[in-house]
Structure formats: C-alpha cells, structure tokens
Specification:
- With 352 residues, the chain is an alpha/beta fold.
- It folds into 2 domains: 117 residues, Aspartate Aminotransferase, domain 1 (Alpha-Beta Complex); 216 residues, Type I PLP-dependent aspartate aminotransferase-like (Major domain) (Aspartate Aminotransferase, domain 2), CATH 3.40.640.10.
- The longest helix has 24 residues.
- It binds 4'-deoxy-4'-aminopyridoxal-5'-phosphate.
- 4'-deoxy-4'-aminopyridoxal-5'-phosphate binds next to helix 3.
Amino acid sequence: MSRLWSSMVHNLHPYVPGEQPKEGTFIKLNTNENPYPPSPKVLAAIKEAANDDLRLYPDPISLALRKQIAQHHALEASQVFVGNGSDEVLAHIFHAFFMRPEPLQFPNISYSFYPVYCQLYGIEPNQVALNEDFEIELASYQSGPVILPNPNAPTGRLLGLEELEKRLRAFPDSLLVVDEAYIDFGGASADCLVGQYDNLLVTRTYSKSLSLAGIRLGYALGHAQLIEALIRVKDSFNSYPVDSLASAAGIAALADWSYYQSVNQQVIDNREGLVNQLDALGFVTLPSTANFVFTRHPKYQGGWLYQQLKDAGILVRHFNRPGLDQWLRISVGSSSDCDQLVKRLQQMLAAK
Ligand code: PMP
C-alpha cells in the first residue's frame, strides 16, 4: 500500500504507548493509570446520558463542560479549551502555536510525544538537557516557545511556580505551555497564573487524577485569545472531539472533586510507602510529585528488572534509550499492587 501513502507518512516515527495486554492478568504499573475507579457519580452520569439523545451531535463548543472546568479553576469558560484526551489538545497546541521560525524548546528527557508532534507538523525541536539531578533548568531556555511537563515525565520532578513565573515575565512574547498531566499528585498548579499571563497555557487530563483514561478527555487553560486559536484549529479538524458521554462524565467528575481528593491522597500515600520500600532494597529513586516513580538499581540492569517483573506478571515501563536504559518508570498502584511489586523485587534480588 505504501505507493498510495502521502510522502510524509514514510518518515513518521509514531509514539509508542505503554503495553495494554489483551491476554493474561497483569498488575499494570506501566501507563500511569489511576489504580482506583472513577467516582460512582461519574458512572451514574454516563448511564443517564446514554439515552435517545445520542442520535444528536454533541455541543460543538462543549459549553457546559467548559463552564464546569472553568469553575473548578476559578476561570471563565472563554479561558478553557477541551479535546479528546490531552494528547489531542497538545496536537492542536503544536499546530496552532509552534509552527513558527524559532525552534520549540523542551527538555531532552520528557514526554516522548513531543518529538512526534514536531515531526508531524515539521517543527524544529531544541531539546534542552536536564541537569545531573534530572531537573529542568528553565534559566537556560532562550526566547521562543517552550513546552514542559510539570511534574516532568518520566522523572516525576517538579518545578515551582516562581520559576515558571520568572520565565513568563522574562519572555512575554514567548509562549510557555505547562503540561500538568500529573499535577494533582502533590504539585502546585499554574492555573492561578492564567489570569495574569497571556503567554501561558496549562494543559490537563482526566486520564490520571480523575481515573478516566478510557473516556479520553483533556483540556487547556489560557488567555481567551490563545483559546480562540485552538478553537480555530479544532474547527478545521473535528467539530465534535468531545462526545456526549465524555462530556457528562467530565462534568460529574469535577462536581465530585472531594472523592478524587481522597483517592489521590491514597495514591500519594502509596507512592511514599513504595519509595521507602524501594529505598530499603537499594534502589535509587528520584523525588516524585507524580503518580509514578523513576528508579534504578545500581547493581541490576533496567532491562533485566523489567523483563523479570513482566515474567512475574507485573508490567512497568522501561525506556530502551541511552541515558535512560538503567531506569524503570513504575506507576503507583493500589497498596496491594505496591506490596506485590515489592515482594517480587525482594525475591528477584535475593535469588541473584
Ligand atoms: N502529557 C503527559 C506528560 C503524559 O504522560 C500523558 C500520558 N501519556 C499525556 C500528556 C496524555 O494524556 P491523555 O491523552 O490521556 O490525556
């Protein structure tokens, strides 16, 4: 079929998501999903929305959902853009703002979808090295657009709001996109800066802290003029990226925020427990503010640990790339998931 392809497709290197095994029972600690279920009120809202109205198209501007999100962040609906997962929101951001003469700066160890979007849209990437503690050194970024996850993935390391503000003030004509996929696990959100800086976009997802990866819902917060650009791109691509069931789920989830606060506190507690246990086994783990930890063992290869765990029915993420191949990214599971992981690691290391 390749003779029928558009020429650019030949050169694409698509993003490879973590495995979603179809067979066998695995403890899945490889895609940073939430180990706890969505709020029961979300499931009820989806059931209620599953009615004859599904013959109708959803609201193309998702106004009710955007109002609920705006209220959650103390913003206006005009400052909110929604899409089919934050990956789609990010794709529109790359399309709307980064196809410019200046290269796009982002950390060299970061979300591996960014280089893929660069390739898709013909954007020149400038990947800026982390420091030796795996921290983002924002002061070494030049003028021009920047995107970074905060906390960063896969390291879990967090930048403070002061550092983000310093950048926003120093480069008022450069867009800063802060990808807050993991911010609800202990970091301070830059949502409070959105009203103050028109060069800031914050992206968020329902996939992690809102336990709704299966729904595909994400959003961006920013100045109304930035949101306007995203709406233009979206309306030149797909008028209805958020379906009626996803919209109902998204509204109900934020309306039951207290449920999620307790769920996410449990994830944070599990993370702290896991870090201590990994520590006791001799692992070196970066400080994490996310629902995953980035860890390595000085004595054992990352690839070996990954495979041994997989053979034992536990999936974690291993990045087979220079500089990262010693490390594992382990999603924080339920307390029972964490216990089983630690037990298995104890057995593996004792047998070596
Ligand atoms: N940003 C980062 C840093 C991520 O790790 C992920 C999850 N793969 C996403 C965005 C995308 O999340 P989703 O499309 O599920 O909203």
